[in-house]
Amino acid sequence: MTSYLKIHPKVEEALKNNQPVVALESTIISHGMPYPKNIETALAVEKIIENEGAIAATIAIINGVCCVGLSTNEIEIFGNAHNVEKVSTRDIPYVVSKKLFGATTVAATMKIASMAGIKTFVTGGIGGVHRGASNTMDVSADIMAMAHTNVAIVSAGIKSILDIGLTLEVLETHGIPVITYAQQRLPGFYSNDSGFDSPMHLNEVDEIAKLVQCKWDLNLTGSVLIANPIPKEFEVEKTEIEHYILEALNEAEKQKITGKNITPFLLKHIANNTKGDSLDANIALIKNNALLGAKIAKALAQL
């Protein structure tokens, strides 16, 4: 693996000494936010994790090498580049063998984090079953990666552009526990309430860490999804965001946008039409997730 995997020295040292490490994706930098907010947010999220006493490891593919932990300069390259591939699990061998630059999605980040031995991963929201999937069969690779990868994922829930009900059903089918932190309702990414009860909820970080470790100790392969509600002062009201989601979906259909281009298109359309409110919410929730993720990583390390 050494020719394919490069672990930053501070990350490698932390892993050797059983110190808490938190993996971060790079798609949010290259495809999820406009410049310069993308770079500012990526660096701020790393700072939050480090201030909490954990090590941040942003993951990306650079010249065909899976890099676990990026320098500030490398983050800036991803934030400014226009030729970075969006990499899910299936794309990893292509991008690596061609020695390209690749920004990793939830699925790819989880896989590379697991290769490095990182147990905690922070993202904005996970992918799942897309609306209209009964016709398109569009189901994110995130779910299959979660079913087979032992990484705890902290997110603000399931992305609200998806079919949340069907995604919950598929997560249950694959044996992936969904736990909401400190409330009984599943958060809806931009808003605190998705309209669904959470399958499980826990109020303490230590309880979450114990559940995660218990799952793996029982040899039950796969992730645990920890849904962390966005702070109330930053949420966008559910009915308001749903209006813009439907508009974005209609526009995507008109323009025949599909596959891995659909999510960046929808998020950009929603951000433009909410006059930045959804972008502000997105930044707030990823920072909030970073704080919780660092605490969970610390609790897991202690176990």
Which key terms come to mind for this protein?
48% helix, 11 strands, Indigoidine synthase fold, single chain, alpha/beta, 14% strand, 303 residues
What does this protein structure show overall?
- Helices cover 48% and strands 14% of the residues.
- The chain has 303 residues and is α/β, with parallel strands linked by helices.
- It has helices at residues 9-16, 27-32, 37-51, 72-80, 92-97, 106-116, 133-136, 141-148, 164-173, 205-217, 238-254, 262-273, 277-302; strands at residues 5-7, 21-24, 55-62, 65-68, 85-87, 102-104, 120-122, 152-155, 178-181, 200-202, 224-227.
- Strands 1, 2, 3, 4, 5, 6, 7, 8, 9, 10 and 11 form an 11-stranded mixed β-sheet that branches.
- It has one domain (5-302): Indigoidine synthase domain (Indigoidine synthase fold), CATH 3.40.1790.10.
**Rg on CA atoms, Å:** 18 Å
Order of helices and strands: EHEHHEEHEHEHEHHEHEEHEHHH
Give the terminus-to-terminus CA distance.
28 Å
What is the CATH-assigned architecture?
Answer: 3-Layer(aba) Sandwich
Task: Please tell me what the overall shape is.
Answer: globular
Whole-number mean pLDDT: 95
Give the structural class: alpha/beta
CATH T-level topology: Indigoidine synthase fold
- In the CATH scheme, the class would be Alpha Beta
DSSP E strands, number: 11
Q: Give the proportion of residues in helices.
A: 40-55%
Mind summarizing the main beta sheet?
Answer: 11 strands, mixed
Number of domains: 1
CATH superfamily: Indigoidine synthase domain
Tally of helical segments: 13
